[in-house]
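Please check this protein record:
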Amino acid sequence: MRSASGRTRSSWMQEPAIVSSGRPRHDLRTEICIIGAGITGLSIAYLAAREGRRVVVIDSGTIGDGETARTTAHLTQVLDRRYYELERLHGARGAKLAAQSHAAAIERMESIVRQEQIPCGFKRASAYLFTSRGQSGEELEREFVAARRAGIQGLEWLARAPALPFETGRCLHFPNQAQVHPVRYLRGLVEAIQRNGGLVVARAHASKVSPGRPGQVTVKDGPTIVADEIVVATNTPVHSRLAMHAKQAAYRTFVIGLAIPRGSVPEALYYDTHTPYHYVRVQQRESPGSNGDLLIVGGEDHPTGMRDDATMRWGSLERWTRERFPMCREVTHRWSGQVFESHDGLASIGRDGKGSHLSIITGAAGSGMTYGMVAATLLTDMWSGRKNPYAALYDPARKVRKRRPEPASLAGGSDHDSDPAPTKARTLASIPRGEGAIVRRSGHAYAVYRNEEGGVSRHSAKCTHLGCDVVWNSAEKSWDCPCHGSRFDRHGKVVTGPAIDDLRPVSRGSRKR
């Protein structure tokens, strides 16, 4: 996983809010309406606007403040699913197309950075894949053969990852990958979209999506947007009940940032073969007076809503890191994020049904940065009648050949012997201040939150997507659904789909007890 919400501090990208277009007061007619203003939605809007299309992008929050603000921003062909697994599931040609699509995405992003002169720290970097301690090199052997067949340029064996303070053993070197500051990159995209006549609207929640020709997107307490094409770019589709959600699963992934002396770790991308695996990169710190860098380390993934042990997972990440990078100083950031992993290891990009004029992008797992550009190219080609070589590979209607075995990257296993059960409480009075719990009364489950002043708010514990019971996430102060990954803030407001509506309040306001 390279995508990662959040305390020490949250995500390392402490940036001013991206300025959006003014919120329209009246109904709009446009060619393309995109729901979701993260890396995917804005990449699509940028290419479409460059081709002269009328584009409106809406987001329920601020621009770029969703999962894109929580990514660790690896731009790489080292995908979450190994190439030998992609060969098994999609054939040698499918694996090769997957590798090509991500390489092309990195090149396209580099071109955009150069053309638009976006100051986002884009730089090419090597990536290294090495075995976890105590493991054999068999997995790397298989991956080397499959990745070479997939056509990855310059792939080679090295005796060890260079200049690291610990012994990695033999590793695979993937040259010419990249890294970027994603929020600064998004800011450049938004400015370019607006220069080309597009609208990017924050705090515009899509409460209803009606596909058609034209289709309609209803904004809560706002206008209706009528569009020839609708794109749902919200990490997971928010317009459908089950179809795509049965083909993928939601996971939380955890990240820490540690201060290190400047230049003590080479700027590269690092991955091990642990279950679940770890991912590492270096970010130069630019704060006044800073004489160091930031080591960003992620991993310890688990299925969303299944465990409430973020503190243990952050602690495990820190132990893993300090054992290998003894120069690390204090932990300055920690956060988590959410990704959706498809059962066959590839994202779904394209029309949501034959003849539909609504398109989706989902299942990007930890490769959302590059998949966003893959989607942008694929959809703009489709709208312009150009043939795209990756359309069939990523078609949402493709048949999944075999339900996946749990992938190494996302198995949910860890070094922990046990995991706490979801937080429950027998009485309202037993819920600590600043915490939530599920309270059961007369056969009904209630999501109850007690604020720092002692006030209590109550909501139905039924997720508004398909009615599964949510659980309390004490690290994020959120209610998470274990069925399809919907998430709600402490007050029941939806923050992550597929749910589109807030948790149903049981009583008005809060009161002290």
About this structure: The radius of gyration is 22 Å. Residues 480 and 487 are 4 Å apart (CA to CA). The longest strand covers residues 248-261.
